[in-house]
Amino acid sequence: MNVFSDPTWAMTMALVFLLVANTLTRLWLASRQIRHIAAHADAVPADFADSVGLPEHRKAAHYSLAKLRLGLVDLALEAALLLGWTLLGGLQWLNETLLGWLGAGMGQQIALIVAFVLIGGVLHLPLTLIETFGVEQRFGFNRSTPGLWLADMAKGVALGLLLGVPILWVVLSLMAAGGKLWWLWAWLALVAYQLFVMWIAPNVIMPLFNRFTPLEDEALKARVQALMERSGFTAKGFFVMDGSRRSAHSNAFFTGFGASKRVVFFDTLLQQLNAGEMEAVLAHELGHFKHRHVIKMMARSFVFTLAGLALLGWLMGQVWFFTGLGVTPSMGDASANNALALILFTLVLPLPLFFVSPMGSALSRRQEFEADAYASQHARSADLRSALLKLYRDNASTLTPDPVYVSFYYSHPPAGQRLARLNAG
Ligand SMILES: [Zn+2]
Predict the structure, then answer these.
(1) Beta bridge partners of 254
(2) Of 418, 373, 358, 370, nearest in space to 392 by CA
(3) Are 351 and 19 a contacting pair, CB within 8 Å?
């Protein structure tokens, strides 16, 4: 038989080709970024000479390099896991083992997916620990303790099971009984589920991990209230989140649907920024809402989910999709392969998607410029500039990234570009 006309063989070759191309590209990008940052580590860029000292600039370089090196280990682990699950027979073994214990049926399928996720999590555990208690600790950002870390993990797993198993059951049931158009019903269920999770997140999920206390700084509250009113928003309340329990990194965000929002400040941000800078950062966030970035992002994600499910619907009917990825599907009852198909699809799909990720990143960076422009109109541009400088400095973000690396990975424009636009505007 001609191996090139054998679809199983073609699927295997496609996987190997995609995995090699993906890994080499990511390796190339990381090495570019490492070289670029290392080459610029000993001189503060001219635009930042007044605001960033050389020791701070060096710290940012070393912090970025430490994270990139850890990323290289992760890259190797990801490639090994993908091969282990597929061509080396890991998923086949797990599926057969669970079939032996539980027999065929919904229970076995849910167990297969839960076991797959948990095993992946356990294998990633050493890297997660090194990130928090190695890299973040060494650079003074980690505030978490082993006890808090364990409690977070236990809560995360419990919450994942509580929220994940029901939707898994719904999707697998629709795959089994929804007929040819199951993917359309599954899509509707997933959209409803995502909206539901977003709805309960601020009041049910987030309080499990952090404490939210009303903002007490009356002067800041009045200022931010005035900003929201003149931008056409209603504040449902101002809260401070104890982000400093885990990390010295900082943030501000909004939660809630429609025009009324809860505004949440990290306590770390309140320590770093003055009232004017705070107002400018919030004006930037309001800019995202005014330009409907959040809704557009959700709409895009729903469209991609629908396309992905339709593709999965087709792939599941092809025996080579399973056999080419190292799994023997059940030939009798087709619905017995649903969990396997979901796992294989989520394993393999990111490989080709990575090559179109620069489009999404470019769009996101453009939206950041739009939000910055909005902030310059509704707050003081100079305040946004000094806030950004403080945030780049205090979070030890590199000021000298490699442009190609930026085009793939950066959701926000590099500091130099962002400040240059604010200066020009
Ligand atoms: Zn933004």
Answers:
(1) 263
(2) 418
(3) yes
Q: What is the C-alpha radius of gyration for the chain, rounded to an integer number of angstroms?
A: 24
pLDDT value at 234 more than 90:
no
Average pLDDT, the chain: 93
Which residues have C-beta under 5 Å from ligand 1, the single-atom ion?
A: 368, 371
Q: Which residues of 149-171 are buried (b: 16+ CB within 10 A; e: fewer)?
A: beebeeeeeeeeeebeeebbebb
Among 54, 172, 198, 167, smallest CA distance to 107 is for: 172
CA atoms 147, 149, 154, 159: torsion sign: positive
Determine the distance separating the centroid of ligand 1 and the alpha carbon of 200, expressed in angstroms.
23
The pLDDT tens digits for 102-146 are: 999 999 999 999 999 999 999 999 999 999 999 999 999 999 999
Catalytic residues, by residue number, are 285, 372
For strand 234-241 and strand 260-266, is the pairing parallel, antiparallel, or unpaired?
A: parallel
Contact partners, residue 155, CB within 8 Å, separation at least 6: 208, 209
Q: What pLDDT does residue 131 have?
A: 95
Q: Give, as one character, the DSSP assignment of residue 282.
A: H
CA–centroid distance, 112 to ligand 1, in Å, is 38
Give the confidence band of 90 by pLDDT, cuts at 50, 70, 90: very high
- pLDDT confidence bin for 47, thresholds 50/70/90: confident
Percent of the chain with pLDDT over 90: 79
Contact between 247 and 269 under an 8 Å Cβ cutoff? The reply is: no
Amino acid found at 350:
P
AA letter at 12: T
DSSP, residue by residue, 323-360: HTTT----SS-GGGGHHHHHHHHHHHTHHHHGGGHHHH
Q: What is the pLDDT of residue 1?
A: 53
> What separation in Å is there between the alpha carbon of 271 and the centre of ligand 1?
20
Residue with tokens 């309960």: 200
304 alpha carbon, distance to own chain's centre: 16
- Look-up of token digits 């808090």: 148
**Separation of 301 CA from ligand 1 center, angstroms?**
18
> In this structure, what DSSP letter does residue 260 have?
E
CB 312 within 8 A of CB 187: no
Mean of pLDDT values over 276-304: 93
CA dist., res. 178 & res. 408, Å (int): 38
Q: Which two tokens stand for residue 266?
A: 């990290």
* Distance of CA 405 from the midpoint of ligand 1 (Å): 19
- CA–centroid distance, residue 418 to ligand 1 (Å): 11
